[in-house]
Amino acid sequence: MTDAPTGETGFARVERPAPPSAAANALTFGWRAVLKFKHVPEQLFDLVMTPIMFTLLFTFVFGGAIAGSTGDYLQFLLPGILVQTVMFNSVYSGMGLSTDFQKGLFDRFRSLPIWPLAPFAGLMAGDVLRHLIAGGIILGIGLALGFRPEAGVAGTLAAVALLVAIGFGVGWVFIVIGLLVRTPTTVMTLGFTVLFPLVFASNVMVDPATMPPWLESVVALNPVTHMTTAMRGLFAGNAGVGAVALALALPVMATLVLAPLVLALYRRR
Amino acid sequence: MRDLPPPRLDQAGPSLAIAARGLAKSFGTLRAVDGIDLEVPRGEIFAVLGPNGAGKTTLMRMLATLLPPDGGTATVMGHDLMCAPQAVRGAIAMTGQFASLDEDLTGRENLILLARLWGFSRRGARARAEALLADFGLSGAARRQVKDYSGGMRRRLDIAASLIVTPGVLFLDEPTTGLDPTARQRVWRLIRRLAGSGVTVLLTTQYLEEADQLARRIAVIDHGRKIAEGTSRELKAATGSGFLHVALHDPGGLDAAAALLSERLGHPVSRNAEDTRLAVMAGSAAEANAALAALIEAGHDVADFSMGTPSLEEVFFALTGRMEEATP
């Protein structure tokens, strides 16, 4: 065991190249997210297992009772399940961030002369990729089971675009939680504690008209309801501008409010 | 501070890699770093020595721009810590106490990632990664995920990750904690080679041997304050003329023997980690001789004794009055 160099290159003085742009930094972090997919393909399983279970269980167990036929119910359920998928995805993203902090990886990033938000922009880029992959898988299963987007390819693409925007906005919430909470498991527990009621007390699984009036008014306030309505509308080709704007309200607000907060928390930590 | 030489004022200005005045950081009511001055000349290995919780890591994190100080000022490679943190980041690299690597990625990918962040081209980043892997003896493991690396390999990769661009100052927080002796020796050799190539190294350690082996100058820190600074030789000289070491045949008599020696020589008595030897500062050989005679007279069965210059461990004990926490 010796340190005899095979070439003096590593120890020779290496000067700093021209500083890269903020976008280049963010792309590098995005590349890291892609590498993670390559090395930890299991994470895909975590991402799509719950939505697949939900789709199958609800469609075949409750579908007939709720909507008269499993086919009709799938048509009703799938857009909301996609919303649920990207939301749960964001929890995993927050967990990943918490893990990186715990391992000290961010100390290294923070001591580099890079754009401070670059690690988060990269995280978001990775999230978008995961939303697309997970969303694609769920949509593929839906199509195989008989889901039919009436608005065709254009409507489907619009729905996917909205889905990614929703995931992007909600992602900030879990980045903040990932920055504040010390352990990845706590991020997960906290995330699902918030998300389960949000997803269930919405119009994702059942028509709110069947609920007691007080719950119906809660559901009407739930942002998940508006997201699901807009998604259904886009798939069906009858979405109004107002519905899409309502669905985007939370993601846009989250981005505007939480992005500066993330930066402040990150600098302080 | 004891009667150590004053800070070398001729080393002012641009020849200093780090110049800190009254750096302070509190967490709630805990004054983790309580007003520390530091002057580290360029191109030297400088050790910050202290027990766990002394404030070493906090001090280093402040100097590496990871933690804003509550008080004091500092420049690193001529850049002000508060006014120009981004310029400081451009001139430093830090290897934290825990390997700050992405465990899911391969060693090669970790280095390429960082090289890309520094602004290397795709090809340049790959070449830089290969060169570092070769020099750190990691070429064979380049395509393995870091989670499968041994502790020593991780630490080497972690240090390599700090050398993508040659830093003006390299911060190493406890670089060999948790490593086996072979891996530790190897990291020591790397650190020496780095210093030889002109990099200023500031390392923290709780191992006195490590500071003694590597560093030209040592600052001893306890409870957030600097209690001594100097070369290893200066620190030892400041502690007194010599140390009397005593071993007994019967370890059961150590307590009584320690009490007697402490009374005769007027200094606190320390014992080694294995509880087999006593060490105490002695003003002169005559005093040591008299104390030893009294010990034998009192019926203690002395196995062997010696008089010598104090080890850094004993220096630390003499400075802080505590031994156990400083023992690795």
Structure overview:
The complex is a heterodimer of chains A (269) and B (328). Chain A has 269 residues and is mainly alpha-helical. Chain A is 77% helix and 0% strand. In chain A, helix 3 packs antiparallel against helix 7. The radius of gyration of chain A is 21 Å and the shape is elongated. The model of chain A is unreliable at 1-8 (pLDDT under 50). Chain B has 328 residues and is an alpha/beta fold. Chain B has helices at residues 56-63, 85-91, 107-118, 122-135, 151-161, 181-196, 208-214, 232-239, 254-265, 285-297, 312-320, and strands spanning 16-27, 30-41, 45-49, 71-76, 79-80, 92-95, 169-173, 200-205, 217-222, 225-230, 242-248, 269-271, 277-282, 302-308. Chain B has a six-stranded mixed β-sheet, sandwiched between helices. In chain B, strands 2-1-4-5 form a four-stranded antiparallel β-sheet, covered by helices on one side. In chain B, strand 1 and strand 2 form a beta hairpin. In chain B, helix 3 packs across helix 4 (122-135), helix 8 (232-239) packs across helix 11 and helix 9 runs antiparallel to helix 10 (285-297). The relative contact order of chain B is 0.14. Chains A and B meet through helix 1 and helix 4 of A and helix 2, strand 6, helix 3, helix 4 and helix 6 of B.
